[in-house]
Amino acid sequence: MSTTRFRQLRPVPDEEARMAFRTIHGYRRAFRIAGEGPALLLIHGIGDNSSTWSEVIPHLAKHHTVIAPDLLGHGRSDKPRADYSVAAYANGVRDLLTTLGIDRVTVVGHSLGGGVAMQFAYQYPQLVERLILVSAGGVTKDVHPLLRMAAVPVLNEAMKLLRVPGVMPGLRTASSVLSRLDGAPLLPGALFHDTADLVRILGDLPDPTAHAAYLRTLRAVVDWRGQVVTMLDRCYMTEDMPVQIIWGDRDVVIPVAHAHLAHAAMPSSRIEIFHGSGHFPFRDEPMRFLEVVENFLDSTKPSEFDEHRWRQMLLGGVGEAAISGSASTRMAVLDAMGSDERSAT
User: What is the pLDDT of residue 215?
Assistant: First the structure.
């Protein structure tokens, strides 16, 4: 039967998040903000929104200013016909932080948000103190087959069926049943582990503008062959930045093998695998997630940007000596970096 989620959190502090809005370049950006102290930025995944962090925000806000945006095209932010690339999202994050008067931040990115976090650290290293990657996208090609199918123009038309009355309630009922089957004998691995969260995300997509924004975002990072953007080619630029990797070993959206590839490409990073968790470890085990994040924050010093050092790393590039792990892991990292289809953003 399904693994019991660890919901026994500490008593919730008084720092409740409030929803706020900023209009930037003519578009409304929604975000949650709570607490005081060093800034902590939480970036959600594709199709999701800032509410995904609702269980952990009050606890993190006890000692930090927590900002959790709804990325453009998601949640309560505007959903224009616009650029939804990872680089554009990084620019949008920069603009939001600027309007809030925040010039240094620790970035936590989940799924697509992990790719955005890495891109943000690459584009604006002077703004980033630490990096926490949670089930992050943008490592190598592997991704759930349904996401590949959804990126295909003809096949993604089937998603319009979500607008038919009764379809979403039926999906929610089915997801409740399937979630209880997770881990049952004779069923493969973690097949249904993330069903409830994935259906939660699908619940926002019947809205035509949300659906269109979702597809533009998806097609910027995934095609029928899998993910088309990799961060492995620039991971060496995080050498002087504290990095924490968190993943669930039952992740069926982005396999846990990606965690080990990212760790091999960033040998100085820390890695924490949540056994029994899926693609949303901060929702499966919020208490453990908080402990890992808080320990990382307490035991590391913020990165200080050194322009000369940054220039030297760019000139030196990356070599096999900068990659750790077994021979097969190093080869897998080098193969991903050597792909002629990787993003050059």
Answer: 76
* pLDDT in the model for residue 317: 75
Q: Which helix (H) or strand (E) holds 105?
A: strand 105-110
As a whole number of angstroms, the distance between CA 145 and CA 5 comes to 26
Residues serving a catalytic function are 111, 251, 279
SS3 124: coil
**Which helix (DSSP H) or strand (DSSP E) does residue 270 occupy?**
strand 270-274
Q: What is the pLDDT of residues 54-91, one digit of tens each?
A: 999 999 999 999 999 999 999 999 999 889 888 999 99
Judge contact between 109 and 136, C-beta under 8 A.
yes
**DSSP sequence for 1-51:** -PPPP---PPPP-S---EEEEEEETTEEEEEEEE--SSEEEEE--TT--GG
Q: How far apart are CA 106 and CA 294, in angstroms?
A: 12
Percent of the chain with pLDDT over 70: 64
pLDDT tens per residue across span 269-278: 999 999 999 9
Residue 224 CB-density burial (10 A; 0-12 exposed, 13-18 middle, 19+ buried): exposed
Whole-prediction pTM: 0.80
Q: For residue 168, what pLDDT is reported?
A: 43
CA–CA separation, 192 and 250 (whole Å): 10
| pLDDT value at residue 264 | 86
CB 194 within 8 A of CB 159: no
Closest CA to 281 of 244, 241, 239: 244
Cα gap 330→345, rounded to integer Å: 23
CB 240 within 8 A of CB 303: yes
* Structural domain 18-141+228-338, CATH architecture: 3-Layer(aba) Sandwich (3.40)
Residue 122 has pLDDT above 80, yes or no: yes
* CATH 3.40.50.1820 domain locations along the chain: 18-141+228-338
262/138 Cα distance (integer angstroms): 10
> Could you give the CA distance from residue 133 to residue 299 in angstroms, rounded to a whole number?
17
Sheet containing strand 18-24, edge to edge, reads 18-24, 27-34, 65-69, 39-43, 105-110, 128-134, 243-248, 270-274
Q: Does residue 285 surpass a pLDDT of 50?
A: yes
Nearest to 124 by CA among 153, 152, 90: 90
